[in-house]
Amino acid sequence: MKLKDKISLSNIFTGVLVIFVLAMLFSPDFKGLVTQNLMKVGLFQPDVPNGSSEEMAAGISANENNEEILFKDPAGYVIELSDQKGKVVFINFWATWCPPCIAEMPSINKLYSELKDNDKVVFMMVDVDNNRGKSEKFMEKRDFDLPVYTPASSIPSSYMSGAIPTTLVLNKYGKVVFKHEGMGDFSNNEFKEFLTKLTAE
Description:
This protein is of the alpha+beta class. The protein is built from 7 helices and 8 strands; from the N terminus they run ααααββββαβαβββα.
């Protein structure tokens, strides 16, 4: 049998499929890129709350059990989450090895670039591995200018039950009014308008 008889379209397709599956299994960056492209066609849109001002004022308290939630900011200083009251806080729990985190990061970076000059909105990209050096290199390599935070206390399960990425939005009263587990496209206008509306309420 000649070599060209052995090489059929189905063999080529099978080979490409095997390479694709292996890349999806062993390369978080490749898997992130694939899911990123799925996001561009409209998948993984977060459900944006559209309630009244009163409903937006309600939510999960940041300090229900009188336990302060602490983070280290980009400069390494410990901050209390309750000190952010008066501002809308966008918190994303993520890790550098997490493909869905990698996939959604460009959309968060786009949102951040559009709102970073709004002093009523705070972005906190919380590296759950607590490895600031690695997470900052991750941001630098991809030209993201998102602020990296690390946990400095335990995180309540009402905030993050272990799934990453998990994204929260706290209103000006320190209440969680949005929670999304799994990746999402946060660059859409609806989500941006949701954050902007919260700053005005």
